[in-house]
From TrEMBL:
Belongs to the helicase family. UvrD subfamily. This is DNA 3'-5' helicase. It comes from Curtobacterium caseinilyticum. Its EC number is 5.6.2.4. The keyword ATP-binding applies. The keyword Plastid does not apply. ATP binds at residues 23-30.
């Protein structure tokens, strides 16, 4: 048994009442939760359970899968309840809402619940005015509810903002007994502040577990802490915080958790990635204030793995290289998983076209075609906008109405609209592109062998044998939308998250010239982070990389 293994086992077995684990990507945080659940089941009193809370449905699927693997389906079902925050809060309200006069026979809100009421207060405005006012109302409502406030307190907070429409919407909601998503969390949090109610949950759930605490809002973390206090296991990695735009507060959460739990445990070594992937990942991690990373079994990786970077004159040359190299890996090792992960949908376009033109099979994780909820929101927006909306109208409508969605859905919508942008160019009109949107099988079930084309935020929590990162240039990495220092730091964390999806190899590429929407070439500068990763490259020419791939898949039956 190695020291590294001991760190993991100690974290699994510790009887520390509040356990905080902060560890780098691939070090086994999710795995730890599953093993800790197994260990804690033996400590549960008769009829008691473990509560696992996740911030998104995708995280819920991921954790459920690990728990099923480690515990077995039956034991998992009997002893562990996995909820997202809305589901957990809704259940608390149904069971105990009466205590605070909250109606318990409410309907679970849908994507339309809040927009339908808000829209009723926008009559008489031009479309443009309506978009602005809708966004304002949504954000004021969200802000006024981000705490354990009663209905009266929410109204008072809204009156302070001075916007009469937000007050009217909230009065309407209260009058009709409807709940919005934000109300579920608010009431859940309020009810857990009633000592008798908290005691019931704390008695039943003798353990609570949370993955990726960096993605939680302080309100969600409060719900975690109040739901169970006998044994709490919270894991995460603030350096992977890429959702601050949806209300996540990694630093604030970490401060509170350290106060409660003391110093965090660390897992230290990566079980996911090869030494050469970890060198480049370490360089980014150190730049972000983190530590270098070591592989749990460094000798297990063929030639130590791969980290390569190549830069091309044009986006078309770059795309062609990515396609041919990924295809070569796929032909030689059909069981290998290959992710082509790009920061933004628009920048992936030349790569997508190269795959389409050549007929090389690749699975596109365009959320527009993968997520039924996203598709229904877009179809809904088209119905509401009528006749022939422009893409800008569609984007504004979809995003302003999505303010109350969970962060995952919001991110999915942004990505889907980017994908739609590309499809409009191909299809000739917005309506033609929208009609091409079709639900596909669920990508959250696991990654199939072969080539996958996806954008950065959806790749979170996944892993591939090979990761290609096209578009390592200014405007894409970092995104041109990141203006402040903190926004740019979040972009560097996106780079960390993307690199850390790789098991054996990571290949970073960029181009000096791209083609605009109007068909004109324009120059792009290399990413400002190129010097950061340059020193960690293991192959300096494309020929070297290709010969590594050929050696690997002729001499060696897939690494690790
Ligand atoms: N103790 C362990 N022994 C062997 N393999 C492990 C161990 N812990 C994790 N793994 C494997 O390593 C990979 C990464 O683990 P996991 O997803 O739990 O890491 P993580 O820290 O949650 O990563 P991320 O922060 O990127 O989500 C998985 O394939 C997992 O099965």
């Amino acid at each position: 048994m190695t020291t590294r293994r001991q760190a993991f086992d100690e974290a699994v077995e510790t009887d520390q009442r509040n356990l905080l684990v902060i560890a780098a990507p691939g070090c086994g945080k999710t795995e730890l939760l599953a093993h800790r659940a197994l260990q804690q089941i033996s400590l549960l009193a008769e009829g008691r359970q473990i509560l696992a809370l996740t911030f998104s449905n995708k995280a819920k699927t991921n954790l459920n899968g690990r728990l099923n693997d480690v515990l077995g389906v039956e034991r998992k079902r009997r002893f562990v309840v996995v909820h997202n925050f809305h589901g957990h809060s809704a259940e608390i309200i149904r069971c105990h809402g009466r205590t605070l006069g909250i109606p318990v026979d409410f309907e679970i809100p849908t994507d339309r619940t809040q927009p339908d009421i808000v829209d009723a207060y926008l009559e008489g405005l031009t479309e443009r005015e309506a978009d602005g006012v809708r966004a304002l109302i949504n954000s004021q409502l969200g802000e006024a509810k981000r705490g354990p406030y009663s209905d009266d307190e929410v109204l008072a907070r809204l009156r302070d903002t001075g916007d009469q429409r937000s007050v009217l919407v909230e009065e309407h909601r209260q009058r009709t007994g409807v709940l919005f998503y934000d109300d579920l969390l608010r009431h859940g949090q309020r009810l857990l502040r009633v000592p008798e109610i908290a005691r019931l949950y704390r008695t039943h759930f003798q353990s609570v577990m949370v993955d990726e605490f960096q993605d939680l809002s302080p309100q969600q973390l409060d719900i975690v802490l109040r739901s169970s206090d006998r044994s709490r296991t919270v894991v995460g990695d603030p350096l992977q915080g890429i959702y601050s735009w949806t209300g996540a507060r990694p630093a604030e959460n970490e401060r509170l958790l350290r106060r409660i739990s003391g110093d965090p445990l660390s897992l230290g070594t990566s079980y996911r990635s090869s030494p050469n992937v970890l060198r480049i990942l370490g360089a980014v991690s150190v730049e972000l204030g983190g530590a270098p990373l070591a592989a749990a079994d460094p000798e297990n990786w063929f030639e130590g793995g791969t980290a390569a970077g190549f830069f091309f004159k044009t986006g078309a040359d770059e795309a062609n290289f990515v396609r041919t190299t990924a295809a070569e890996i796929h032909e030689r090792a059909p069981e290998a998983t290959i992710g082509v992960i790009c920061r933004s949908g628009w920048r992936r376009k030349p790569v997508d076209s190269a795959f389409t033109r050549s007929g090389t099979p690749a699975r596109r994780w365009d959320l527009a075609t993968d997520d039924p909820e996203v598709i229904s929101r877009i179809h809904d927006a088209v119905d509401r906008l009528g006749a022939t909306p422009t893409l800008d109208q569609l984007r504004t409508h979809v995003l302003t109405n999505a303010e109350s969605a969970d962060s995952e859905t919001f991110a999915a919508l942004v990505e889907a609209l980017d994908a739609l942008d590309e499809m409009v160019a191909e299809s000739g009109s917005v309506m033609a592109a929208v009609s091409r949107l079709r639900a596909a099988e669920d990508v959250a079930e696991g990654i199939t062998p072969g080539i996958h084309l996806l954008n950065a935020h959806v790749g979170k929590g996944q892993q591939f044998d090979w990761v290609f990162i096209p578009g390592f240039d200014e405007g894409n990495m970092p995104s041109f939308l990141a203006k402040s220092a903190s926004e740019r730091a979040e972009e560097l964390r996106v780079l960390l998250v993307v690199i850390s999806r790789a098991r054996h190899g990571v290949v970073i590429t960029g181009a000096a010239s791209l083609i605009s929407k109007k068909g004109n070439p324009y120059s792009v500068a290399p990413s400002r982070w190129r010097p950061l990763v340059r020193g960690s490259m293991t192959h300096s020419t494309r020929a070297e990389l290709v010969s590594h791939i050929r050696r690997m898949y002729s001499d060696h039956q897939s690494s690790s």
